[in-house]
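[Q] Does anyone have a clean structure-token version of this?
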Amino acid sequence: MASAGGSDPGEGSSRSAGEQQLVQPVAQLSRYESQKRRDWNTFGQYLKNQRPPVLLSQCNCGHVLDFLRYLDQFGKTKVHLYGCPFYGHPDPPAPCTCPLRQAWGSLDSLIGRLRAAYEENGGLQETNPFGGAAIRVYLREVRDCQAKARGIPYKKKKKKRKTQSQVDDNEPKPMSQAS
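[A] Here you go.
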């Protein structure tokens, strides 16, 4: 007599070989792919919620800019306004009423993922609304504004040039001959 706990070795093996093959692990998406899919779905939902709804084929840079401004309400980065006593201070000593915004780095990454998703979903690179000049200008303005508001000058990192001695050090050395 088999117990209710299923300790019988034959119990639970009633599946046929065909049934066992149907259960396959689903390949997990990378973090980037998951974010890209989520961002693409969020943008699509944003377009559907517009009055009147906007089709993806009708989407332009203006819609993308409106979407980026809409996202500001969910931001977590304090951006001091020009009249704020903490404007230009990287570490303010007290709280203030300045708004929270999306950080420039987050917006820049978002646009990169949406640009890739647009093309993966059948959009042409030439008509990609996420790659337009207006988007680049907007992102540059956000970056500069946030850097000034926090008192941190944004400086683009320059690639280090190798000096001649570094180049010479990286060249393969001739092997000494053993005698």
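[Q] Thanks! Anything notable?
[A] Strands lie at 77-78, 100-101.
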